[in-house]
Amino acid sequence: MSAERVPSRTIAQVVSCLDGYDPGALRVDKAGAAIRACLTPVTETETVAIRDSLGRVLAQEIVPRINVPGHDNSAMDGYAVRFSDLQSTDEKKETSLRQIGTAFAGKVFQGKVLAGECVRVMTGAVMPQGADCVVVQEVCRADGDWITVPAAQKAGQNVRAAGEDLKAGVAVLHPGQPVRAAELGLIASLGIAEVKVMRRLRVAFFSTGDELVSIGTPLAQGQVYDSNRYTLHGMLSGLGVEIIDMGVVRDEPQKLEAAFAAAAKADAIITTGGVSVGEADFVKQLMARLGEVLFWKIAMRPGRPMAFGKIGKAYLFGLPGNPVAVMVTFHQFVRNALLALAGRTDAFEIPLLQAATATAIRKVEGRTEYQRGVLFAQNGGWKVRTTGQQGSGVLRSMSEANCYIVLEHERGRVEAGEMVSVQLLDALG
Ligand code: AMP
Ligand code: MG
Description:
Blueprint: H1 11-16, H2 28-38, E1 45-49, E2 73-74, E3 78-81, E4 95-103, E5 117-121, E6 133-136, E7 141-143, E8 146-149, E9 159-160, H3 181-189, E10 194-198, E11 202-208, E12 212-213, E13 224-225, H4 228-237, E14 242-249, H5 253-263, E15 268-272, H6 282-290, E16 292-297, E17 300-301, E18 305-311, E19 314-319, H7 323-341, E20 353-357, E21 368-378, E22 381-386, H8 396-400, E23 403-407, E24 419-424
Parallel strand pairs: 4-5, 11-14, 11-15, 12-13, 15-19, 17-21, 20-22
Antiparallel strand pairs: 1-10, 2-9, 3-5, 3-6, 4-8, 7-8, 16-18, 18-19, 20-24, 21-22, 21-23, 23-24
Helix pairs in contact: 2-7, 4-7, 5-6
The chain binds adenosine monophosphate and magnesium ion (MG).
The site of adenosine monophosphate has 19 residues, from helix 4.
């Protein structure tokens, strides 16, 4: 008997189940939840040399086969001693021990430390048999083979225990984690040469708009250079995805349709422009005809209009055209969604810090605002100010900023000195 096939739910079916879903006035949190509910991450994996796994998403558990470190070893340059030999807590009493040898990192002392003996050890040297603590060299006096050790040492001090970093058999990394510099080193410390990672997500994007021209072409009156293509390139580059830059596509149905057909071979499509009210309607009409696409008015500023859906198997993010709105909607919705699609389990965790605002900020209730801000140190604390002109076409405001000041939906005017939420741009990759 064949298994009953469960038809996959359409995007409209998924989002209609969400509380407070209103496409005409969608709260930022609801839009995020709607996108999240629709995502199915990629499942294909590939095995790569560890260096090539940097920035990728781990697709396997890493379970050490060895302890790291492999042996108890010295954390300092000094003398490995038997704690039981030392004079106890009496501050003035010293102990004299006979040095019977030296152990270096990578060069094990083969003998055994007996009562009244010690071994000179370097950082990383395997602890000589019989010794159980290390006294740093700076506090000891040497006179030939005789080493004088002061009192009041602590049991087990300056010894790194075998397996204190990584324990054989205990999983240390998990599927869905990003591989960063620390993970590369950690995997290398286990002697593992290759790891399984999720395949790279393929993301295609193009700009729409008849007024747009590419760099290299002189501007005629009313034309602007396509900058969104470059900000998108920059933002996508930080995410470890494969980028398919399709350039500018004219607002002509045939060209747009061909572009969408080509882009639908990717896992995700990002377009900019053409989703606002009052736009020549081709882009929207075409999106709606070629796939299942929802058109939202999000209660946010900048970046109100946005389209989300699927064309074929590809997720579609139709962003507004204004350069700042592109960056904000990308950072707040697309980035997380792409990371989730790429298999990251931490995709939706963007830290929000709190800082006192240096100036009053105008804000109306009923929408979430992402003002461009500068977080700066003052009197041992952190303050934030806006970058001034906040128009959604003023890309300079993003360039001058190091953070977003996130003004929540319910919040009204903010007075100087009030605490506000801040999202560091660096944290957005
Ligand atoms: P739209 O969302 O298509 O109505 O565009 C809104 C504004 O953003 C208009 O002023 C456009 O000229 C501008 N714009 C749209 N796309 C781009 C782009 N790729 N690069 C720079 N500006 C753009
Ligand atoms: Mg346009």
